[in-house]
Amino acid sequence: MHSVLDPAFRRDLGDGLVLRWSTADDIERIATLHSLVHRDAADAPPNEEYIRQIRRMMSDDFPLMGPRDFGVVEDTSKAGNPIIATTAVWRHTWAYEGIPFRVGRPEMVATDPAYRNRGLIRALFELFHARSEARGDLVQAITGISYFYRQFGYEYALELDDRRMMPIALIPEGRGALTLREATVDDIPLLEELYRRRQASGILSELPTWAMWLYDIETWKRHPELRHFLACYMLVNAAGETVGALITDAYRRGKALYVWLLELIEGTNMQAILPSLLQALRAYGAGIEPALPDGEPFQEICFALGTTHPVFEFADITLRQPVEAPYAWYLRVKDLPGFLLHIAPALEQRLAASSLAGYSGDIKVNFYRGGLRMHLERGRLKVVEDWRKPVYGESEDASFPPLLFLQVLFGHRSVDFLRQVFPDVWASAEAAPLLRVLFPTRPSFMLCWN
Fold this sequence. Notes:
Blueprint: E1 10-14, E2 17-21, H1 27-37, H2 48-57, E3 70-75, E4 83-96, E5 99-111, H3 120-134, E6 139-142, E7 155-160, E8 163-167, E9 179-182, H4 188-199, E10 204-206, H5 210-217, E11 230-236, E12 242-249, E13 256-264, H6 270-287, E14 300-304, H7 311-314, H8 317-320, E15 327-332, H9 336-342, H10 344-352, E16 361-366, E17 371-377, E18 380-386, E19 398-399, H11 405-409, H12 415-421, E20 426-427, H13 431-438
Parallel strand pairs: 5-6, 13-14, 16-19
Antiparallel strand pairs: 1-2, 2-3, 3-4, 4-5, 4-10, 6-15, 7-15, 8-14, 9-11, 11-12, 12-13, 16-17, 17-18, 19-20
Helix pairs in contact: 1-2
């Protein structure tokens, strides 16, 4: 019997359903599934954009996965062995206060409606988690649909998509001095620098590979019929000088053009450049092809830049107001002691810079179905281990419902904020200030790359 890590792994799920890893021979069947699942109505035509996406992701050129990185369920009892459920495995590297760690990302999760409520996604996620953990991923992350992924050990713990809309009707007519130039390979170092600077204020950051930048600038052109997700542009002033960069959709989504990254080089005045930037984006949005045919006409520019982006300080009041509260990434940390020890240098640095420098003692955190004990000696994190509150005697220093501690760990919410919402979140008078120092609240910004 093959290990779940073996490309030849197969598991019989009953009724002719087989769980296994994909091969290049599965591309069209996976594309067919997604083209039918991702429709607005059961009688709508297949979604051609998803067919292109699957072909693109399963090519050898795609930097985050390859043709063997889908977990699939096929129905061997039907003609043609249709694939009826999938989960892809993407590979990222993130950093916690500059300390790198690997991230496994489940993507393109789908089930044929006729096969739902049979536990197929649970089986696929068990397969995904096994591979992710085996390659050393300390965290799994997904930008998924509401609630669903909580049942697999995920918690909302990182800001995602703070969207601000600018109707193009409010942008003054005319063409400003700023133009957009398609980024080239030579621009990648500056793009990397600007992205790092954008993330510097957050707790979490990303370490994209050269191949990731190269893909949306150059590699995708090997198969232009498959298109690509993102378009990278440099901002050029009237003197021909590069003054910044932005990342936007390569193809417009419905009535909106989305802007995912907008950064200016040091010394460039954001307030002065903004009117010309909006005019350039309006012209660009009007000229690009929509992702799907027969879409709505171009009506607005959506800035998805995170709540702390400086552009919102200078923009029209319309842009200052979010469309709705930001969504969030789901994060999963199976080995919490292991992750905390991995990022111990960051926690120790926070402690050393605080009024609790040199702290010694234990922090016992009750998760109700388990817990955690952290032992510090003279400001050093010496021990982190699983802990469970005994029936008598030893008591906890803080309590969180299962998984909610991840919001504190990744700076998404503070202990004090969560205490106001959840009565079963608690910290003792001694532990509360220590937790505030070790786990400050600070928004992070992360590109989705899709």
